[in-house]
Amino acid sequence: MHLNKNLSLLLILLLQLKSENLFSESKILFDKEPENRILKQEENLDIQILYLNQKLSTFKNLFHQKKIILPSGSFLKKGFTDSNDCVDLKESQKSNCIKLEQHHAELNSKLELTLDFRKIIILFFNDSGELKQIASRIYSDQFQTKEKKILELIQNDPLNSNINENLFIRFVSPTKTPSFQFEEIQEKKFIPFKELENSKSSPIRNAFKNEAYIKHLKQFSFFFDRISEN
């Protein structure tokens, strides 16, 4: 009962981020579809996710690309895996992850910062050059209202078609400090995606995949295409 309520609130909060171009403006009336159509729709959504992950796996060529031109507000790092992050290389280490960040800021008429919005994707590769994990993070910091939102997703074995078994999500609205780097985030546990409800009355998994995750993967796939030489 509490889990479903929390996940419903999570979806509402995510949909509120539409103004930050995370989601499309389309509205889908999932609740009017029969159960079998809900399941069929999820199968189709999973096919799209798998296709996009396969596309993202090809950008390992960036490890060998020396010149990379990035648009303003974008940052790319070729680093080494440290837990769920991609950190700077140390001596003798070989790059096995690619971290791409897009940053957007908004100012008011007084040129004061009102919004800091960051979207991050990290591609982790194994020693054979195969994509083994995708991490996604979205940070939203409203300075006027002092509202902070952090959405994190981890997809293990992203080339496996069983999306729900390998996708994990957590949502944090920090309150303790003005910084995003604190224990409150780490204390929040990831929720297995398979635990999200996906019924006729509450198709949370389908809504999130369609309205958020697929669009997130598409955006970064398009971005990688722009900066890749192949």
Folded structure, characterized:
With 230 residues, this protein is α+β, with helices and mostly antiparallel strands. The protein has five helices and eight strands. The longest helix is centred in the C-terminal third of the chain and has 24 residues, at 204-227. α1 (2-15) packs across α5 (204-227). It has a domain at 1-11 and 46-60 and 97-230. The N and C termini lie far apart (49 Å). The protein has an eight-stranded antiparallel beta sheet.
Q: How are the SSEs placed, and which strands pair?
A:
Blueprint: H1 2-15, H2 35-57, E1 74-82, E2 85-87, E3 97-107, E4 113-125, E5 131-142, E6 147-156, H3 163-166, E7 167-172, H4 183-187, E8 191-192, H5 204-227
Antiparallel strand pairs: 1-2, 1-3, 3-4, 4-5, 5-6, 6-7, 7-8
Helix pairs in contact: 1-5, 2-5
Instruction: Summarize the biggest pleated sheet.
Output: 8 strands, antiparallel
Shape: globular
Give the helices and strands as they follow along the chain: HHEEEEEEHEHEH
Amount of beta strand = 25-35%
> Given the structure, what is the number of helices?
5
Helix coverage percent: 25-40%
- Please report the distance between the alpha carbons of the first and last residues: 49 Å
Q: Kindly state the number of beta strands.
A: 8
Low-confidence stretches: 1-9, 15-33, 177-185
> Which structural class matches the secondary elements?
alpha+beta
* Radius of gyration from CA coordinates: 18 Å
Mean pLDDT: 80
What is the topology, as strand order, of the major beta sheet? 2-1-3-4-5-6-7-8
